[in-house]
Automatic annotation (TrEMBL):
Family matches, as PANTHER family: MOLYBDOPTERIN-GUANINE DINUCLEOTIDE BIOSYNTHESIS ADAPTER PROTEIN, MOLYBDOPTERIN-GUANINE DINUCLEOTIDE BIOSYNTHESIS ADAPTER PROTEIN-RELATED
Pfam family, one: MobB
InterPro entries: MGD_biosynthesis_adapter (IPR052539), MobB_dom (IPR004435), P-loop_NTPase (IPR027417)
Protein name, per record: Molybdopterin-guanine dinucleotide biosynthesis protein B
Record GO terms (molecular function): GTP binding
Example GO BP: Mo-molybdopterin cofactor biosynthetic process
Phylogenetic lineage: Bacteria, Pseudomonadati, Pseudomonadota, Betaproteobacteria, Burkholderiales
Record organism: Limnobacter thiooxidans
């Protein structure tokens, strides 16, 4: 199994932007990285009128779209329960690190992304899996490292060191 590292925080704090900035840094250090993003509610990457959409609407359990640059497998849950993070990890191709966005309550090491301007409470006091907080303000987090949110190289180095010491 690859190393798994999560990012947790309320909507609008910049999780996706930070991950987007971290990916080229980690990949540049020779780390093969995959990402699992937990979406909320009824998301859909497909569009009405497309062949794949029509196949799904007609009842297909899975639709695989393939081309010379990428492929995607869409699996309809129908009445099945949402798969756990652990189940989804087994579906990924081999890699060194899986970055997980969302899955706030997952039992994996996480960095909390927090912005004072968002007005939301911090997650780390209730989540023992949060190993650091990245934020845009100077704060104290009861012994947890506080990382500068706008310094992706420092955050990437923290992630790499976390796994070297694991």
């Amino acid at each position: 199994m690859p190393k798994v590292f999560g990012f947790a925080g309320f909507s609008g704090v910049g999780k996706t932007t930070l991950i987007e900035q971290l990916l080229p840094i980690l990949i540049g250090k020779g780390v093969r990285v995959s990402v699992i993003k937990h979406a909320h509610h009824d998301f859909d990457i497909d569009r009405p009128g497309k062949d794949s959409y029509r196949h799904r609407e007609a009842g297909a359990y899975e639709v695989l779209i393939t081309a010379n640059k990428r492929w995607v497998l869409m699996h309809e849950l129908r009445d099945e329960a949402e798969p756990t993070l652990e189940e989804q990890l087994t579906r990924l191709s081999p890699c060194d690190l899986v970055i997980v966005e969302g899955f706030k309550r997952a039992d994996i090491p996480k960095i909390e992304i927090w912005r004072e301007a968002n007005g939301k409470p911090m997650l780390y006091p209730q989540d023992p899996n949060i190993v650091a907080v990245a934020c845009d303000a100077e704060i104290e987090c009861r012994g947890l490292p506080v990382l500068p949110l706008n310094d992706p190289p420092t955050i990437a180095q923290f992630i790499l060191e976390h796994f070297l010491n694991d």
